[in-house]
Design brief:
This protein is α/β, with parallel strands linked by helices and 338 residues long. The chain has 2 domains: 62 residues, Phospho-2-dehydro-3-deoxyheptonate aldolase, domain 1 (Alpha-Beta Plaits); 255 residues, Aldolase class I (TIM Barrel), CATH 3.20.20. The protein contains 11 helices and 15 strands. α8 links the parallel β12 and β13. Bound molecules: phosphoenolpyruvate and manganese (II) ion. Manganese (II) ion binds next to loops.
């Protein structure tokens, strides 16, 4: 339920309602809007409580939240959320750019990429240190050594670090180094992991599971928000369909859909979403045109010899061209790019 307070509400009235909501066994979440304060009463919806809460001091109205997700819903929070950390911002007219290799491989590889993408306008550096690979025989990532290289790249370039976390056991370790914790597509429904990253202070980049519906995706975000972490970005990275001309099918209609359903920023991953380098620039441009709040792209100086996902990585020149094209679209739309 949403408890909408009167415009001239007092602190005491807010505290009183927070206490009432708790007494009913619901979780209060106070949201200070530009015009009004609203209090989300999260838990199982109970219509019999609505009348009681509506009679509280300073209450203008009590409304049910119709969506199955509550904290993530636009019904609860009309203003869009901007996620911000270090050099990186996404949402509210800013399209953030996360670029870097699929996997952190060597110091030289990572530093070359970090310097290049920074000079071309990226605002965050991606790089997997813990890799969730389909085959146990594939490269699994450099683990802590990779995290250390990412931290070194941040130290030199100032770029925020985005890296994946694949297990609850690693939360503390990864949170020691990363600025944004990435939850990969394979883990979108790992609910214990979602709860664990809901308790850290860094923003989370939550990727859509390849077979997840939008409601399942938003409910996964809800797990993180429900633990207190309000900085969640939703990443559309393509879904599994009958099509074989792309690695996944990248639905850009997710951008307007999510913008209507939620206040959280929407990031597009045209690298995993297509699985082919030649498709990435056009889909990146299209994502900006569709209103994405950010892009995440795989970039490698030598894609042919990349240890993972080289077939969908842009080389430095291709990334530079893509940035120029995307910026033109962002400029035309009056949005900040990077
Ligand atoms: C990645 O970003 O390298 C990755 C593994 O992505 P996803 O979880 O979307 O497959
Ligand atoms: Mn990858």
């Amino acid at each position: 339920m949403i408890v909408v307070m009167e415009p001239e509400v007092t602190e005491e009235q807010i505290s009183h309602m927070v206490e009432r909501i708790r007494q009913f066994g619901l979780k209060p979440n106070v949201i200070q809007g530009a015009e009004r304060t609203v209090i989300a009463a999260v838990g199982k919806e109970r219509s019999d409580l609505m009348d009681s809460l509506a009679r509280g001091p300073g209450v203008a109205a009590v409304m049910p939240i119709l969506a199955p997700y509550k904290l993530a819903s636009r019904e609860l929070r009309q203003e869009s959320t901007q996620v911000q950390t270090q050099s990186f911002r996404a949402g509210c007219g800013v399209c953030g750019v996360i670029a870097g290799p699929c996997s952190v491989e060597t110091e030289e590889q990572l530093m070359t990429i970090a310097r290049a993408v920074k000079s071309m306008g990226a605002t965050a550096l991606r790089g997997g240190a813990f890799k969730p690979r389909t085959s146990p025989y594939s490269f699994q990532g450099l683990k802590e050594a990779g995290l250390k290289l990412l931290a070194e790249a941040r130290q030199e370039t100032g770029l925020a670090i985005v890296t994946e976390i694949i297990s609850t056991e690693d939360v503390e370790l990864v949170a020691k180094y990363a600025d944004v914790l990435q939850i990969g597509a394979r883990n979108m429904q790992n609910y214990r992991l979602l709860e664990a990253v809901g308790k850290v202070e860094q923003p989370v980049l939550l990727k859509r599971g390849p077979s997840a519906t939008m409601d399942e995706f938003l409910l996964a975000a809800e797990y993180i928000l429900n633990e207190g972490n309000a900085q969640v970005m939703l990443c559309e990275r393509g879904i599994r369909t009958f099509e074989a001309h792309t690695r996944f099918t990248l639905p850009l209609a997710s951008v307007p859909y999510l913008h209507r359903a939620t206040h959280l920023p929407v990031i597009i991953d045209p690298s995993h979403g297509t699985g082919h380098t030649y498709m990435v620039p056009d889909m990146a441009v299209a994502s900006v045109a569709a209103g994405a709040d950010g892009l995440i792209m795989e970039v490698h100086p030598d894609p042919e010899n990349a240890m993972s996902d080289g077939y969908q990585s842009l080389n430095l020149e291709e990334f530079s061209d893509t940035m120029l094209r995307c910026r033109k679209i962002a400029d035309a739309l009056g949005k900040q790019f990077g």
